[in-house]
């Protein structure tokens, strides 16, 4: 029996040692960590996603700076400074961990700047950035809790508070590539210089233009719009980057732009002009696809994007506003909780119809 | 017809993720495991009632001798995996996290077989009842990790006929390769075991379902299966392809109703390892006393597929493979997606141990149970194989809203971990689901809905 006992003693000692030996001497780093499964993780993090969206916006931003010059740099920089500092100060004030490192405030600032005209005085984007973060995001409780797209909230408040600046700070002498001077002259002849505004005046009979001739400048270098509207082509490039990374759902841009194009062409507008003019491309690819403020499910996203398209069309054709993308997205943001409440995925094994009776199925 | 089936298999089964497979042990032949000095055999290794010990302290037991049994239907007996002396009954740490009454046996180093271990005769001459009885006595449970007693699974239920038996060789968990090796090395035995089960449930056909990344195993199975009249199906490689409900939906296109059993749609799923154990039981007489498991991870010196005696301490297996390297990180019993992290290496290997994975302290990943932050990216919804809304589980569990959780069908969650894997803000979604499920049970009790349902 002696040998057996010895063997057994070995096992027991080993066990005891690990279980109860003087626990005070165990250093935390010598212990095993326990946690609930899964014990491995996917590669994407929130910060990485924000980074990729910023990267996707970089070609557009760079080209915009080339076209608009230093004034665009001022707008972009002060907008980002405004939003990041607002995030920092508010989180300090609320005694919650400061999360400017996750880049979401930077992204909000950048997006806001891209929706602004290039020749604003520096204090306006600064206020816009602060307002975007304060009223668009932090009042709701920070990242993930906001109902409306913060950048668009910032822009909406600027547009309502200082409409004069917002409507007149466009470029007069752009140096965009692929646009001939004659076109610039035609446009500059009208008071307010965005093509959509021109299109509005066309409908009212005040101006005669040929929409088709604007498509090329809109794609390659549109000098008459906000910073982010300089080139629809680069917006699409950004969208492709996001699609390849699996960051955005294709349904939103496709349904949004698709709806606007279809409705506008029914009303006799050039479909390409409808797609590329104004903030539609930027809005559909970068604003409406903001995770926080659109529905979770695929069908929810389709409804959301189609709704955005319809409202954009209504605002473009039946209101005094030159552009409806911003308000349409904000409007549908407000409906998102409702969409999420009614459009839910069907849980596995929950519908009577989908269960094929055993006998029938085996005869197939 | 075939194309339609392929299409369905690839595209119509939603959700799932593609984690890095890390199956470097797929080419390692199954090796015999350590010969332990002693074993600790928990009396609960299965779903169901705990066994009562039927041996005395000081008694000599032999390999394959029954040492614990229960009178309950939903239970499975346990057997000694070594020969030696019973040295005591203790409450010992169990891989499931609590302490369980276990039988300690000190080895005499002889591994003498019990006289009861002898071939059971030709199973194809036996009646289903006899087969079931032998399977029960052999202590066979589902070896894929769920440890549901097999004899219960194959017991007939009034009005339900099983037409298809699926042998589950998906092994979709990263790192694990035990089933893959069994399929390669013991193809005939595995399929024979499946045929025994087929006879027991009187099924019309048997299919072996293998993930498409195990090409060699598919070929082997096709070769042997062709002889024995068994169909082999190649599944898309995606986690959690091996989960019962997902597997049935993929292979047969039938959806197991919520709260129902595979039997409700005429299917039965059994793991490759279980089939092999059944073969061993009938043709060699050996009850379930050892199993194949994979030892893997960057925190352990040697990687292997081992045949380990049940009750061997994980400590012994780790030492056998060269011991841990680096700072201690995580020790996981099972696969990395659904396995359980252990706080000690003195837990025994049990019937449901599919693998032992050790991660280094320097590289392991642990989810902080921090505040729930959701950026509403919708990845969890898209990836959930059960088509649920994991973010809602997280949010509601975080706020203790049990009623809402119940309305979101939290009971249907299989805790596969896909949602937590893809979540960019690293929310501990599975943990919150577990909290939520408990809360829902408490909530229902409080509301007395149990009585209403009756
Ligand atoms: S753990 Fe549950 S909720 Fe999460 S993906 Fe799996 S089944 Fe869905
Ligand atoms: S994956 Fe995480 S962040 Fe994304 S919706 Fe689900 S819980 Fe929220």
Protein traits:
heterodimer, A: 364 residues, mainly alpha, 2 domains, 17 helices, globular, disordered N terminus, disordered C terminus, B: 454 residues, alpha/beta, Ubiquitin-like (UB roll), Rossmann fold, 3 domains, six-stranded mixed β-sheet, four-stranded antiparallel β-sheet, 17 strands, binds iron/sulfur cluster
Our estimate of the beta-strand percent of chain A is under 5%
Residue windows where pLDDT falls under 50 for at least 5 positions of chain B:
none
Lateral arrangement of strands in the main beta sheet of chain B: 1-14-13-17-15-16
- Approximate helicity band of chain A: 55-70%
The helix/strand class of chain B is alpha/beta
Radius of gyration of chain B: 22 Å
- Helical stretch count of chain B? 15
Counted by DSSP, the helix tally of chain A is 17
Low-confidence segments of chain A, given as residue ranges, are 1-8, 189-193, 353-364
- Compressed to H and E, one letter per element, the order of chain A equals HHHHHHHHHHHHHHHHH
Please give the largest β-sheet of chain A: none
Structural class of chain A: mainly alpha
CATH class categorisation of the largest domain in chain B:
Alpha Beta
From the spread of the alpha carbons, the general shape of chain B counts as globular
Q: Oligomeric form of this entry?
A: heterodimer
Mean pLDDT of chain B: 89
Can you summarize this structure?
The complex is a heterodimer of chains A (364) and B (454). In chain A, 61% of the residues lie in helices and 0% in strands.
């Amino acid at each position: 029996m002696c040998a057996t006992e010895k063997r057994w003693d070995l096992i027991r000692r080993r066990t005891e040692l690990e279980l109860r030996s003087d626990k005070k001497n165990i250093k935390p780093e010598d212990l095993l960590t326990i946690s609930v499964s899964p014990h491995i993780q996917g590669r994407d993090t929130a910060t990485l996603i924000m980074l990729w969206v910023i990267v996707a916006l970089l070609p557009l931003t760079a080209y915009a700076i080339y076209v608009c010059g230093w004034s665009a740099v001022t707008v972009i920089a002060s907008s980002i400074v405004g939003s990041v500092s607002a995030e920092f100060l508010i989180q300090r004030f609320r005694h919650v961990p400061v999360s400017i490192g996750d880049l979401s405030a930077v992204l909000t600032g950048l997006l806001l700047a891209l929706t602004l005209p290039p020749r604003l005085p520096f204090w306006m984007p600064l206020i816009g950035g602060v307002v975007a973060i304060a009223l668009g995001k932090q009042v709701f409780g920070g990242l993930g809790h906001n109902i409306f797209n913060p950048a668009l909230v910032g822009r909406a408040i600027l547009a309502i508070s200082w409409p004069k600046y917002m409507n007149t700070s466009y470029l007069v002498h752009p140096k965009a590539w692929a646009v001939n001077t004659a076109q610039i002259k035609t446009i500059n002849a009208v008071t307010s210089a965005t093509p959509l505004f021109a299109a509005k005046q066309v409908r009212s009979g005040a101006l005669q233009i040929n929409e088709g001739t604007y498509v090329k400048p809109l794609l390659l270098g549109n000098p008459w719009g906000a910073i982010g509207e300089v080139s629809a082509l680069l917006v699409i490039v950004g969208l492709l980057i996001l699609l390849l990374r699996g960051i955005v759902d294709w349904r939103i841009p496709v349904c949004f732009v698709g709806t606007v194009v279809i409705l506008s062409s029914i009303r006799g507008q050039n479909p390409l002009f409808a797609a590329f003019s104004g903030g539609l491309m930027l809005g559909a690819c970068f604003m409406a696809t903001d995770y926080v403020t659109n529905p979770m499910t695929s069908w929810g996203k389709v409804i959301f994007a189609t709704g955005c398209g319809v409202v954009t069309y209504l605002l473009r054709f039946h209101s005094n506003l030159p552009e409806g993308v911003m308000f349409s997205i904000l409007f549908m943001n407000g409906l998102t909780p409702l969409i999420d409440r009614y459009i839910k995925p069907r849980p596995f094994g929950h519908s009577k119809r989908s269960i094929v009776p055993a006998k029938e199925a085996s005869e197939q | 017809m075939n194309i339609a089936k392929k299409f369905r298999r690839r595209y119509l089964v939603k959700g799932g993720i593609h984690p890095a497979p890390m199956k470097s042990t797929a080419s390692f032949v199954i090796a015999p495991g350590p010969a332990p000095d002693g074993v600790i055999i928990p009396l609960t290794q299965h779903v169901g009632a705990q066994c009562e010990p039927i041996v005395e302290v000081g008694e000599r037991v032999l390999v394959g001798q029954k040492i614990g049994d229960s009178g309950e239907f939903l239970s499975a007996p346990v057997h000694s995996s070594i020969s030696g002396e019973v040295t005591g009954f203790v409450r010992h740490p169990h891989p499931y996290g609590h302490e369980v009454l276990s039988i300690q046996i000190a080895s005499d180093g002889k591994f003498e077989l019990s006289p009861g271990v002898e071939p059971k005769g030709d199973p194809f001459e036996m009646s289903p009842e006899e087969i079931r009885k032998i399977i029960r006595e052999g202590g066979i449970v589902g070896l894929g990790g769920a440890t549901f007693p097999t004899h219960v699974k194959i017991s007939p239920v009034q009005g339900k006929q099983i037409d298809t038996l699926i042998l589950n060789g998906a092994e979709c968990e990263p790192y694990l390769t035990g089933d893959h090796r069994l399929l390669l090395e013991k193809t005939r035995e595995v399929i024979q075991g499946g045929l025994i089960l087929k006879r027991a449930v009187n099924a019309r056909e048997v299919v072996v379902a293998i993930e498409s990344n195990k090409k060699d195993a598919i070929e082997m199975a096709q070769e042997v299966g062709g002889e024995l009249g068994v169909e082999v199906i190649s599944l898309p490689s995606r986690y959690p392809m091996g989960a019962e409900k997902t597997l049935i939906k993929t292979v047969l296109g039938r959806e197991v109703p919520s709260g129902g059993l595979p039997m409700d749609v005429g299917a039965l799923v059994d793991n490759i390892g279980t089939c092999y154990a059944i073969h061993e039981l009938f043709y060699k007489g050996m009850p379930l006393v050892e199993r194949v498991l994979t030892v893997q991870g960057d925190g352990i010196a040697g990687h292997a597929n081992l045949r380990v005696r049940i009750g061997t301490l994980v400590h012994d297996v780790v030492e056998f493979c060269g011991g841990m390297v680096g700072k201690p990180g995580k020790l996981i019993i099972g696969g990395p997606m659904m396995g359980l992290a252990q706080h000690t290496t003195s837990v025994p290997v049990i019937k449901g141990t599919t693998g032992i994975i050790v991660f280094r302290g320097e590289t392991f990943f642990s989810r902080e149970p921090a505040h729930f932050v959701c950026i509403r990216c919708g990845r969890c919804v898209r990836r959930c194989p059960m088509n649920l809304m994991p973010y809602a589980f997280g949010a509601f569990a975080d706020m203790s809203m049990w009623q809402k959780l119940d309305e979101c069908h939290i009971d249907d969650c299989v805790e596969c971990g896909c949602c937590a894997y893809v979540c960019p803000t690293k929310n501990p979604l599975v943990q919150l689901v577990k909290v939520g499920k408990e809360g829902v049970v408490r909530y229902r009790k409080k509301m007395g809905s149990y009585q209403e349902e009756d």
